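Can't paste images in this forum, so I'm doing it all in text. The chain is below; anyone willing to post the predicted structure tokens underneath?
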Amino acid sequence: MSVMVTLELPAKPDRVSEFLDVMRAALVDTRAYEGCESVETFVEESTGSVLLVELWETAEHQQTYMKWRMETGLMDAIGEFLSGAPVARTFNIKSDV
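Text version of the structure:
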């Protein structure tokens, strides 16, 4: 069953534009990754916070993807653009509610 993952990335207000350029390039690979159903990006203009809303076939697909991102260094590379730690949350989808 699909899961929804949110990832809040608190971008430094003066680096939002650069950060979005990096994410634009990185999300091409995310969207092509096995098990990824979709990724949408939202920006809170007043704070520069970036929210990714991802749908994955399974939580395991997303966990495998995150492990790959850690191994390839993306999370380290985006650190310079962030004002705090990313916050990830995984939700089970309850279509019957």
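The beta strands are 3-10, 36-44, 49-56, 87-92. The two ends are 15 Å apart (CA to CA).
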